[in-house]
Specification:
alpha+beta; single chain; 66 residues
Length: 66
């Protein structure tokens, strides 16, 4: 299987992590995000600060995944 490049147009970050970001690191290398399915949709959680970054509610719609 060949490795695909990310198709991400806009990244999600924890606001507190961005405030504390060391000058020597990028937001991507500093991030400690957990992503997973919930009963309603998908949640992105900051493990460093134990905070919700975003919680997506799919409103019962079925979504596809690649």
């Amino acid at each position: 299987m060949s490795k695909k490049e990310p198709e991400i147009g806009a990244y999600l970050h924890c606001a507190k992590c961005l405030e504390e970001l060391p000058e020597t690191e990028s937001p991507a290398s500093f991030a400690r995000l957990s992503v997973g399915w919930t009963r309603l949709g998908l949640q992105v959680w900051c493990s460093r600060h134990d905070l919700n970054v975003i919680n997506l509610d799919f409103k019962g719609q079925k979504v596809g995944a690649i």
